[in-house]
Amino acid sequence: MRIAQLGAGYWGPNLIRNFLRVPEVTSFQVGDPDEKQLAKVRGMFPQLQTGGDLQSFAADPSIDAVVLATPAATHYEFTKLLLNSGKHVLVEKPLALNARDGRELVDLAREKKLILMVGHVFLYNAAVLKVKEYIDAGDLGEIYYITTQRLSLGRVRQDVNALWNLAPHDISICNFWLDAKPERVTAKGKCFLQPHLEDVVFMDLDYPGGQAAHVHVSWLDPNKTRRIVVVGSKRMLVYDDVSMDAKITIYDKGVDRNAIPRDLPSAESFGDFQLQQREGDIIIPKIKFNEPLFVECTEFVRCILEGRVPKADGENGLAVVEVMDQAQRQLDDARR
Ligand SMILES: NC(=O)c1ccc[n+]([C@@H]2O[C@H](COP(=O)([O-])OP(=O)(O)OC[C@H]3O[C@@H](n4cnc5c(N)ncnc54)[C@H](O)[C@@H]3O)[C@@H](O)[C@H]2O)c1
Question: What ligand 1 atom has the least distance to the C-alpha of 164?
């Protein structure tokens, strides 16, 4: 499989490093208009071929697939041109900057029978998959709500706000865990450093099953935090992506509603049930961890070779963009 990549900035080298390890990849080439970035990746990967651009990759019949690690504003236009040129595409998140463009790309990939994959790397993260197993097995009981925090100080972008830069990960994780798309989205954000780019966003998602999710993203926070709490009727769980040795902690804690027999005198005053706090063991499961990005890159190549649809396909990426699009409209309205 011959693959080319556009973009060798911050994230690009991670994709290069992993694609170079995928056995089926026979040739890998990287283009970036910034010569400094190309010199940087040549220094990191001496065997790497550099050079080429969107037009040359699109026109080269020997290139099977193109990876886009370019700024979000280029994703729609670049992906469209590459699909129209018969290339399979792995585009970094977000798929597009609005739902209409995202839908067009998904339809185009289907029509052309090409693989369109979005870099929702957490769908290939062993800890995220483990939590999904717990949820699906009913170990947490009925899921009540999820809260996510993706916070840090810095890597302030000047092309997209903190919502578009950080929240796609959390939305993709919540959709995956709950097997659903939110039916209602509300968002509030604040711009402090740049006039039209929110540094902090608080977003609330309501899922059709009655679950709620609260997403907090910021690049203006003292601590690097990558923390998700899942509260279920039986157990509660914390997924801490920053932790080295306790990525997932399961708390056998909760509040049970215990029915009170009708004939007891207290029944009338308490209603029909009593709320009882329960505290049991705390479990930190061992997780066999493969680098999620390597799993993602391998999946892209294998899906092309085997004609399989990837988990992080265009439709999945579109579901994330739909949420972001709704949230962004509310942020725009609040700034007017
Ligand atoms: N999956 C993840 O966890 C993750 C993490 C970080 C970034 N990303 C995504 O990766 C993408 C890039 O982010 P970044 O942080 O590396 O940005 P960046 O600004 O550091 O790098 C972007 C690179 O693209 C290059 N570029 C611009 N126009 C180009 C063109 N026409 N052809 C080729 N290259 C071009 C720029 O010169 C730059 O080197 C974004 O979509 C971002 O959301 C994903």
Answer: 43
CATH architecture of 2-120+292-311: 3-Layer(aba) Sandwich (3.40)
Q: Are 67 and 6 in contact (CB under 8 A)?
A: yes
Cβ(37) to ligand 1 under 6 A?
yes
Side-chain-side CA neighbours of residue 268 (13 Å)? 2
pLDDT tens-place values along the chain, 336 residues long: 999 999 999 999 999 999 999 999 999 999 999 999 999 999 999 999 999 999 999 999 999 999 999 999 999 999 999 999 999 999 999 999 999 999 999 999 999 999 999 999 999 999 999 999 999 999 999 999 999 999 999 889 999 999 999 999 999 999 999 999 999 999 999 999 999 999 999 999 999 999 999 999 999 999 999 999 999 999 999 999 999 999 999 999 999 888 877 666 554 555 678 898 999 999 999 998 899 999 999 999 999 999 999 999 999 999 999 999 999 999 999 987
317 CB near ligand 1 (under 6 Å): no
With a 6 Å cutoff on the Cβ, whether 92 touches ligand 1 is yes
Say which CATH class 123-290+325-335 falls into.
alpha beta
CA–CA–CA angle 20, 303, 134 (5° rounding): 95
Domain parsing of the chain, residue ranges: 2-120+292-311, 123-290+325-335
- Phi and psi dihedrals of 328, rounded to 5? -65, -40
Residue nearest (by alpha carbon) to ligand 1 atom 7:
11
- C-alpha to C-alpha distance for 194 and 177, rounded to whole angstroms: 34
